[in-house]
Write a structure and sequence with these properties.
Elements: E1 13-18, H1 21-31, E2 40-45, H2 53-61, E3 66-71, H3 82-100, E4 107-111, H4 117-134
Parallel strand pairs: 1-2, 1-3, 3-4
Length: about 140
């Protein structure tokens, strides 16, 4: 495993968002000039119900040190239960990450509504700090 100094390591974070609440929260953060880590890569999904373990695992294969999925609040999904399906798929993928030795902590799901720009920013800051503490993805050395 590569030695790392948490202060010097800037993780690559892939963030999957639904096009409704979550992406509106990203927009709100931008409109309000709320800062969040610049090292995140946003990928829009029609709904977090379309989250697939293959997409999440592919993000790690493409170099992400951490991945998060951001969807509408539970009970407020534009596609009724899409965020609940997304949550179940994220939980399944976390188990896969543990099984293969990458670690479930490199993946998380958050729920925000459209006006919650600060909540979105806090979520990606939290994820950034968590992954910084974990260090680079073990896949990076391959």
């Amino acid at each position: 495993m590569t030695e790392h100094n948490g202060k010097d390591f800037e993780p690559e974070i892939t963030v999957f968002t639904c096009i409704y609440c979550a992406y509106m929260a990203v927009d709100t953060a931008g409109a309000l000039k709320i800062e969040y880590p610049p090292n995140i890569k946003l990928i829009k999904l029609p709904c977090t119900g379309k989250t697939d373990a293959r997409y999440l695992l592919e993000a790690f294969e493409q170099g992400a040190d951490g991945v998060c999925v951001v969807g509408c609040p539970i009970g407020n999904c534009h596609h009724v239960d899409g965020n609940k399906r997304g949550r179940a798929r994220v939980a399944h993928t976390k188990q896969l990450l543990d099984d293969v030795g990458l670690g479930a902590d490199r993946l998380e799901m958050y729920f925000v509504s459209g006006g919650m720009g600060e909540t979105f920013a806090n979520a990606v800051r939290e994820m950034n700090e968590r992954v910084r503490a974990l260090g680079p993805s073990p896949l990076k050395g391959r």
